[in-house]
Write a structure and sequence with these properties.
- It comes from Devosia aurantiaca.
- It contains 16 helices and 18 strands.
- With 526 residues, the chain is α+β, with helices and mostly antiparallel strands.
- The strands form 4 sheets. The chain has a 10-stranded mixed beta sheet, with helices on both faces.
- Helix 15 packs antiparallel against helix 16.
- The longest helix has 18 residues.
- It is globular.
Length: 526
């Protein structure tokens, strides 16, 4: 049972719906659909925060960006690295230099030739210290790669230089968005955030912040001429728009709305076991220094005690509409440490460990106070999950103030500057094909994706050993040692791997991936 008798349903909003798009469509015309045949519409829970390739850091943002910007490689869910812009790859004997031969006749969005100069620029720009970029590329991608520089060999050949050998090299390089040097050198950083000039199949035709992003096709691959990404924060509204035929795909379907979609005659729900790692992060950095609770969570004994306070299986069954197993680390199964068991819900143990850590209840029943921040509408039923966690912590004497914030304009900027919390609810994407990818969030103490500012030197010393190994199997003893440290003293209150529910129109042939990547290049009409 959730604390305080909390309800698991989203709160309903009163919404006025616009007319269906397309000629002659009606809101009850479920079978014919209301989208033109050359257009696909996706309903997202959160807006993009930027289209600067060096600043993109969230999955929703990246799902749009991957249709605008091409990459050297693509990685499928099984971890197979497939050439995209690259024709040939040569690796130096020491594994520190990669020379890529580009496919001929590549172009930028504006029709200009895309050459090795553009690729080198795309790699070097995010690494510019003066610009202080904080997206995934300068964050965990470059810190994991040990990126050093990129240089032009000739028009079709570019060399990428690393400071350390890694088995993740090509997979990480596949996440660097290729963009066009002349266009970006002519823009300020502020202009680049809103005016992307891409190298991929689509261009941004318009961006009405908080409402929708419209992409127009400029070249293959891509089945649809137009992709519209509508921003619909409220889960019930996304469902209504899907059933009415106004959108073709929606994310984060609320569990209590699954039957309505499946019984609508116009759409069905596709469920996948996701790889997104949901957590309450402990902000251990200077961004929250002096705030209530910031000092107390510096103690790993306090952090470990708090694990017992939250009923994770109860949250899954009652708020997410499915069963789940609590995480034991930041690594997706089956790549975790097999010796670790999920920490059970045991509030009495939480109270005992908090007492032993030196934080007994006061006369008012409070041990200490703290703030828990979370986004509203970014993750599956996130507002109710955050409120439940806050109540669980209150129940063991940690007076918790819950604050829910809009994702794109408020919460995401706080993450970039590491000023959220001291407790903050977050999900970070992962994979099943390499544990080191999942662990690369903490490749350096000051990395952009180390939102918790965790600085335990034992972890970072072992990271160097693990990443330098020739194979994952060779690194396994070190990986297991690192995951045990993360279990005992890490910077996450560990929750669950998020189950993902997508609503899909009956007119569309499209299957979701487990890693939340929304690829529409091959989506088609039935």
């Amino acid at each position: 049972m959730l604390p305080g008798g909390q309800r698991g349903n989203d709160h309903e909003n009163t919404v006025t719906f616009g007319a269906c798009r397309g000629t002659g469509c009606r809101s009850d015309d479920h079978h014919a659909g209301c989208s033109p045949d050359n257009t696909i519409v996706v309903g997202l829970s959160a807006d993009a925060s930027t289209f600067d390739p060096a600043q993109i850091s969230s999955r929703d943002n990246a799902n749009i960006a991957k249709h605008i910007f091409a990459t050297l490689f693509q990685v499928n869910f099984e971890g197979e690295v497939q050439p995209y812009l690259v024709d040939e790859t040569a690796v130096s004997e020491d594994g520190l230099s990669y020379t890529f031969t580009l496919k001929p006749d590549l172009t930028c969005e504006d029709g200009e030739p895309l050459t090795a100069e553009d690729v080198a620029y795309s790699f070097n720009r995010p690494a510019d210290k003066a610009s202080a970029f904080t997206g995934n590329t300068p964050g965990f991608v470059y810190t994991t790669l040990g990126f050093k520089s990129a240089e032009v060999v000739d028009d079709l050949n570019v060399k990428v230089n690393l400071t350390a050998k890694t088995t993740l090299a090509l997979g990480m390089m596949a996440q660097v968005y290729i963009h066009c040097k002349d266009s970006y050198e002519a823009m300020t950083v502020e202009e680049a955030a809103s005016n992307p000039v891409g190298s991929g199949s689509y261009r941004v035709a318009s961006w009405d912040r908080g409402s929708q992003i419209v992409l127009e096709k400029v070249k293959d691959p891509g089945t649809f001429d137009t992709i519209i990404w509508r921003i619909i924060p409220e889960a019930s509204t996304r469902t209504a728009e899907l059933i009415a035929g106004n959108v073709d795909i929606i994310t984060n379907v609320a569990p209590d709305q699954i039957d309505a979609i499946n019984n609508s005659g116009s759409a069905t729900v596709e469920q996948v076991d996701g790889t997104r790692r949901m957590q309450v992060g402990f902000n251990l950095g200077k961004g929250v220094e002096g705030m209530p609770g910031a000092k107390e969570i510096q103690d790993p004994k306090v952090r470990f005690a708090m694990q017992y306070a939250v009923d994770v299986p109860g949250i899954c069954s009652q708020l997410l509409g499915t069963e789940c197993t609590r995480m034991t680390s930041l690594v997706n199964p089956p790549n975790g440490n097999p010796d670790l068991e999920p920490i059970p819900y045991d509030p009495d143990m939480a109270e005992q460990l908090l007492d032993e850590a030196g934080y007994p209840r006061g006369e008012n029943g409070v041990r200490f106070s703290i703030r828990l921040q979370g986004p509203r509408g970014r993750y599956l039923n996130d507002a109710n999950v955050v409120q439940a966690i806050g109540q669980y912590l209150n129940d063991v004497g940690i007076e918790t103030e819950v604050e829910l914030l809009e994702w794109a304009s408020v919460y995401s900027p706080l993450l970039r500057t590491k000023e959220m919390g001291p407790l903050f609810f977050l999900g970070q994407g992962g994979v099943t094909w390499n544990p080191l990818y999942d662990m690369s969030l903490f490749s350096t103490p000051d990395g952009a994706t180390n939102y918790q500012s965790w600085t335990d030197q034992r972890w970072f010393d072992d990271w160097k050993l693990a990443i330098d190994a020739d194979t994952v199997e060779e690194a396994r003893p070190v990986i297991n040692r690192m995951l045990k440290l993360f279990y005992d003293e890490g910077p996450w209150l560990q929750l669950y791997f998020q189950p993902d529910f997508y609503g899909v129109s009956n007119r569309i042939d499209w299957k979701p991936r487990r890693d939340e990547e929304i690829e529409l290049f091959a989506a088609k009409l039935k």
